[in-house]
Amino acid sequence: MKKTHCFILLFFLPVAGALAADALPDKVDYNGDIKRILSNNCYACHGPDAKKVKGGLRLDSFEGATKELKSGERAIVPKDLVESALAYRITTEDVDERMPPADSNKKLSGREIALLKKWVEQGGEFSKHWAYVAPKKVAAPKVEQKGFTQNDIDRFILERLKAKGFNPAKEADRRTLIRRLSFDLTGLPPTWQEVEAFVKDKSPKAYEKLIDRLLAKPQYGERMAVYWLDMVRYADTIGYHSDNHETKPLYRDYVISAFNNNKPYDQFTREQLAGDLMKDRTTDQLIASGYNRLNMNTREGGSQPKEYTAKYLADRVRNASTVWMS
């Protein structure tokens, strides 16, 4: 790579990317802004799989991205765009050197290029997955708007809206509000009597009382259970071939009851994964472990039991990993 050419290109590039850069955050965040770009466009050849790494370059860690390559270059030289090969490779018009390569059928957008450049300029810092980063208490923004900011969450929202040039929507009337809450929490529209009662309730805690009433309805658990049952792949049929009917209502009702009774998530998890192994287990805990039997089931004549047992086990491992570990 010729540094002179790189310098000239980087000097004029801000003009071409000005519109994309306008919307960039003040501080580029690796997990929020950069990791997805690198993962989607670069990891196939420069990711964590050592067997597929090309050119000795890895872009999944600070050490890999900043180490000197055989060519003498470094993909990232913190705070130095001119010396960072990454900046040159993602902007050059030379198709033989442009990254991602043309035959990968991947192309960075103007915003993605601008984000990568700004990230390098700010030091090219990598950070742990958000789940392993200790949360920090952040002071609420000092913004106020009459009729909108009632708590700190509102202030954070208002700050983001103002940064984008937007204003909050007008406050919904009570008939609209009760419909939204009812559909969100129970999946059903409110009755005419419920609407009129809420409209006429002028007490300061009318909204909070409405939420409590909706949360106390059995339909709340049914509504919330829908999402969980989808994730664990609950079905009323066996899944193979003729897709014969096969219900597991006790497990379904256990999930509904767990939401209605506000069961702690850690307990909810233990009971499903190992309820049948718990000391002094209850009937509910045994039912909860039915999660492990939610796999598809074949009744085909001539099927190989060992083959399908392996399929069942693989399905549960895959599903448990997806549900609890994303």
Automatic annotation (TrEMBL):
One of its GO terms (molecular function) is heme binding. Residues 153-325 form the DUF1549 domain. Pfam families: PSCyt1, PSCyt2. Residues 42-103 form the Cytochrome C Planctomycete-type domain. InterPro entries: Cyt_c-like_dom_sf, Cyt_c_Planctomycete-type, DUF1549. This is Cytochrome c domain-containing protein.
